[in-house]
Amino acid sequence: MNENARKDAANERKTLVGFIAAVAVLLLVSGVAILAVRGYASTNRWVTHSYEVVTALEGLTASLAQADAARRGYLSSRDSTYLKERDAALAASDEHLQLALQLTTDNADQQSALRVLQENLWQRTKQVDELLEMAQKQGMADAERAGIAEDMRKTTIDISSQIDRLQRTEIELLAARRGADEAWANGLVAAFCILLVTVVSMLTWLCLRVRAEARARARHAEALDRLNTNLEGANRELESFSYSVSHDLRSPLRAIDGYSLMLEEDYGPQLDDTARRYIQTIRAGSQRMAALIDDLLTFSRLSRQSLNRQTVDMTTLARRAAAEVLENQPEPKPAVNIPDLPAVPGDPALLRQVWTNLISNAVKYSAKSATPEVQVRAAAEGRQVRFEIEDNGVGFDMKYADKLFGVFQRLHSMDEYPGTGVGLAIVQRIISRHQGAVTAKGERGKGATFGFTLPTEV
Amino acid sequence: MTNGKYEPVEILLVEDNPHDAEITLRALKRANFANHVQWLKDGEEALSYLFSEGEYTDQPTPRPRVMLLDIKMPKVDGIEVLKRIKADSRTRAIPVVMLTSSKEESDLVRSYDLGVNSYLVKPVDFQRFSEEVTRVGYYWVAMNQLPTA
């Protein structure tokens, strides 16, 4: 049984560990899932960001084209509304440039490229302003000759190629980010799959384990049931055995005793003293055997009888037992001192028997002392109470102490002190059924102290 | 032991063991109940006697003042006899005292469940046994009151 219990405990531990591991892996899967979702969201953010940069750069190109168109319009018509249009387009281009600068704060290369672009734009605006001024004062032909227009064209090409480069860079960046993201996503999916497979296999394993355990438990329960049935059978047998013993052994004893007495009563005058002594011996023997049978039956019932546990008032129990014992005790009766005792949980009928047996022993063995005295004591000892019954009687030799609680063990002859030798065995059986212990201390001629402990909690 | 022609039976002893019966009858004789005792050797005979069946068909229904009933008997045991007596309106009023060798808790419980009037365990010591039987006889025959038929 013990081996099985240990196995059960080990199995339970394994199942628990498996369960915890499965939960841990599940948590890991959840973490991976969260990371994947967040990675996807950040990719999205980057894609949007790249589109924003590209859009800003496109806006910049468009505004610059608009400004150029307005400038050409003015130069051919000299209509000053074209100048206003141009100013507005330049302002718009500046806004687009600022937006691009803002969007690319995370990228130093792009920032510096944008700064160069800005320089170029300023330079070009200055050139255009110069061109316009000259065209206003001296006419377009002079302006062409001064080479300003030529410079301007060169700057224009620079600018558009710079914007192109910036756009291309941004698009490349986007592609690189997407590639990295895809690798990350693929990795995640793989990890996710592995973890899922792990969780599923762990759960399957756990399921199988739990089922196997349930089956093993059912088997144990079955075995236990069988054992219980056997035990019940054995118990019933024992019960009917002790019933027979008590009934069938006592009947012939009653006949022996009864007919011996009849013989004595009816034929006494015809018998001599020896014959009458024989009859007395027969009667004493049968009565002693009856007492032995009764005690043995009490003793054997103690093992089977279930405990009727309740809070027991030990003071009352001990005092009543003492009164009963002293009632049947010839003078001089020993003084039995019983102080107030703590209450303990237990079976009152059985504990009463303990007090009766121990007090009657103490009284019996101290009765021949000069001033016979029996002292009862109780003391708390942690989670138990120790009760002691001390007498100043004949005591016993400690080398026989282990024999005291055995069935039919006696340290005195029947002539000295009558008894069946079952009393202390009954005490020990009752106390051990209450999860307590019995003790005996003594010295030949100097009294004995019998003690027992009882737990204060059940 | 019955001289019962003129004396009504007052004590019914149901006991299978002849030695126990003799000891009980001796005790009752000493207490001067001898002429009022009917000894029946087992449960079957007790039932025949009480319900005027079998060899007792011709006798009038007896009305003993007490019945001393052993438990462990062959054929019909004491518990069965008690059950039959207490279940029948004709015999229900007869006081039944269990007089048995063993103090078996289950027997006690069953007997009281079935309505036994008293339960005694026969002591081995003949003197004590004798005293008890005498007391039982006096109590149920002389002191206890029964409803008139």
Task: Please describe what this structure looks like.
The complex is a heterodimer of chains A (458) and B (149). Chain A is α+β, with helices and mostly antiparallel strands. Chain A has two domains: 2-212; 306-455, Heat Shock Protein 90 (2-Layer Sandwich). Chain A has helices spanning 2-77, 80-103, 108-138, 140-145, 148-267, 273-304, 314-327, 348-366, 423-433, and strands at residues 310-312, 335-337, 344-346, 373-381, 384-391, 438-442, 448-455. In chain A, the strands form two sheets. In chain A, strands 2-4-5-7-6 form a five-stranded mixed beta sheet. In chain A, strand 4 (373-381) and strand 5 form a beta hairpin. In chain A, helix 3 packs antiparallel against helix 5 (148-267). The longest helix of chain A is centred in the middle third of the chain and has 120 residues, at 148-267. Chain A is rod-shaped, with a radius of gyration of 56 Å. Chain A starts with a helix and ends with a strand. With 149 residues, chain B is of the alpha/beta class. Chain B has a single domain (11-141), classed as Response regulator (Rossmann fold), CATH 3.40.50.2300. Chain B is 39% helix and 14% strand. In chain B, strands 2-1-3-4-5 form a five-stranded parallel beta sheet, with helices on both faces. In chain B, strand 4 (96-100), helix 4 and strand 5 form a beta-alpha-beta unit. Chain B starts with 10 loop residues before the first strand and ends in a 6-residue tail after the last helix. The model of chain B is unreliable at 1-6 (pLDDT under 50). At the A-B interface, helix 5 and helix 6 of A face helix 1 and helix 5 of B.
